[in-house]
């Protein structure tokens, strides 16, 4: 019965690409404002599922200390970290595990949910092996397209997406309550390489936090953008252009690279996204489930 549901929310803990915003070592025009004005900074992409005092993280980032404080502020209490789901083995998505170790929090048997290759990666590489040996974390193997029941009201389902898989698989997540479904895909090479139609996913769910790393192909000066494939927001807007307004409102772009002008208030790129009925995700955004 709906009236018996615990109050559940999803909290966006960060919306920047792995290097954060401002980006480590960047002295370019893209990051000047963020260096000078901490109020516009962005933490590395991650979300938390909150239900009463329980907290499940999807990815644990280099900014975990600030993100844990964000959760504490939201709950007005210390959260119980009931589990951590890792999407893949790129540095912004799992490095925060080190804060759980002996030198920092020294946690006790926090479940960390991982796909088989990600599990092997953590089991075979120090310093993560120490987290396992000291029982700071307990690895839980998950399978694609298989639901994990978080509590009586919330399930989470991992699904595989195409991405640079040097060290592990890459997965997105569907968070489902009795009332709402949320899809989180911070990293994917392209919508067309996926064997699932992203249009169907948008139409079939309530909220979608989708890879918006780059706005277009001209952003990177020191790297070949083809070496870090992501769907350009500009191309996503074209692909999503046939969606009805009700479905456009569901889409929030996240995992934003420091070079992406949608980070800038009143930029042409940001206004283009908003004027077409889509959203740019923000840190500390609360989504009712």
What is the gist of this entry?
The chain has helices at residues 29-36, 64-75, 116-124, 128-133, 198-203, 233-239, 245-248, 268-275, and strands at 8-14, 46-51, 54-58, 80-85, 110-114, 137-141, 148-149, 155-160, 171-176, 181-185, 207-211, 251-254, 279-280, 286-288.
General description of the model:
The protein is of the alpha/beta class and 289 residues long. The chain has a single domain (7-288), classed as Metallo-beta-lactamase, Chain A (4-Layer Sandwich). The chain is built from eight helices and 14 strands. The strands form two sheets. The chain has a seven-stranded mixed beta sheet with strand order 6-5-4-3-2-1-14. Strands 7-8-9-10-11-12-13 form a seven-stranded mixed beta sheet, with helices on one face. Helix 2 links the parallel strand 3 (54-58) and strand 4 (80-85). The longest helix has 12 residues, at 64-75. The chain is globular and about 50 Å long. The two termini are 15 Å apart.
